[in-house]
Amino acid sequence: MKYPVLIIGLLLLNHIKILKAQHPDIEFMTGKEYASYCIQNLKQGALVVRLNFKTKALNALQQMGNTIKADRLRLAQREENLAIMRAFKEGFHFCPVYFIRLDSAVALQKGQQGNYFLDNNLIVDTTIRMKEKFFLFAEYGMLETSLSADKTQPGQETVRRGLMADALIIRDKNLELLPRPFPFYIHFGDWKERVRKLEKRLQRFYLGNK
Question: Nearest Cα to 202, choosing from 39, 87, 33, 48?
C-alpha cells in the first residue's frame, strides 16, 4: 500500500513543478530571473507602444485661446507619432506590436476589450484585437537613471540619480521599469535607428537567455 501512495505523491509533486514552471510567481524572482522571464515571454507576446498626444498641453493652450500654437503642437505631435509608428512597423520584428494612446494603458491593464488600439492613421480601430496574453509597454519620455560618481567630489554618494530625457523606454505591464540586464531603454538616434537598436538588443538578450 505504501508504494502506490508514494507513486501518487511523486506524480503530484511533479505536476506542481510543471505548474510552477508554466505560471511562475514573479514576486519571488530575482531581478535577473524576472528580466529573463520577460524576454522569453515577450518573444511569444507583444509590445504595446504608448503614443503621447500631448492632450493636457493642448487643452491648456485652447483654454488660453492660443489656437494657433495648439494647432502647431497638435500637428507636430501627430507627425512624431506617425514617425514612431512607421519605425516600429518597418524595423521591429521581435514580436507583434500594437499602438495605443498614452492614457489608454489603464484599460489594457484591466483587460478591457477593444476601443483603444490605433490604426495607421492614429485612429481607434475597434476591429484590432491583441491575441497575445503577455505584453510589455514601450513609450517615449524621460528616464531616471544612475550616473557615474564624480571623482572630483570624494564626499558624494557612490551612486547618483539623474534624468535622461528623450529616451525610448520599455516597461512591464504595471508600467514599472524592467530590471537589468533587460535592455529597457534606447537613448540616441532618430526613431528608425532607435527601433533598429532595440530590435538588435532584444534579439541578443533573448538568444542569451534561451
Answer: 39
